[in-house]
């Protein structure tokens, strides 16, 4: 018997069509031995946030790959992104038995922390279960890196998130490489530029790979599978 719910105000997940209730997220399991053998397992929910800018103007740009990863996760896990809360577009569902809250802040990149801080507080998600997904110029295009913590680098979205989490940095993050601006190209212009056909293909492949890594993280934490994932990503475009 599966009955995940969550505090203080969220959907009840006994069916595919969610019903709004005030409950706690929990998963109840039972054995075939009868009522006396019944046991309960509780899962801590994950808040998975993709950073980007809202609006068609920014769709498909380098700075919005965080949004695209959320779209892929929502599609693969059957999560409807149809609710606005804390200035974010959110969807609630589960990866297998683990409850997840997917979010795309609508505040524009530099103010993403307003949504993340509010959602984390409202749903009482611990820092270790707040996964931030964003673009990273320090990585080649299409290369991913999944880490348990890190700094803000030069990313204003991550800087805003850390500011609204009391300066704490011990939250997981999935960085999606978008490469560096060529020559003397302005950084802002580069971030708001769309990908070339080859780059877009690399990004699409990376999003599929990243969604599987997120699933592994949610179900098993930072295990050897994540270490192998990072190693493969590091050398994925190296020719032997």
Question: What do these coordinates show?
Answer:
The protein is α/β, with parallel strands linked by helices. The protein has a single domain, classed as Peptidyl-tRNA hydrolase (Rossmann fold), CATH 3.40.50. It is 30% helix and 22% strand. The protein contains six helices and eleven strands. The strands form three sheets. A seven-stranded mixed sheet has the order 6-7-8-5-9-11-10, with helices on both faces.
Question: What's the CATH superfamily, by name?
Answer: Peptidyl-tRNA hydrolase
Provide the residue-averaged pLDDT: 86
The total of beta strands comes to: 11
Strand order of the largest sheet: 6-7-8-5-9-11-10
Might you state the CATH topology name?
Rossmann fold
Which properties best describe this structure?
11 strands, 240 residues, Rossmann fold, disordered N terminus, 30% helix, alpha/beta, 22% strand, seven-stranded mixed β-sheet
Break the fold down into its secondary structure elements and pairings.
Blueprint: E1 10-12, E2 19-21, E3 27-29, E4 39-41, E5 46-50, H1 65-77, E6 83-85, E7 88-95, E8 98-105, H2 112-122, E9 130-136, E10 144-147, H3 156-164, E11 173-177, H4 187-191, H5 197-220, H6 224-234
Parallel strand pairs: 5-8, 5-9, 9-11
Antiparallel strand pairs: 1-2, 3-4, 6-7, 7-8, 10-11
Helix pairs in contact: 1-5, 2-3
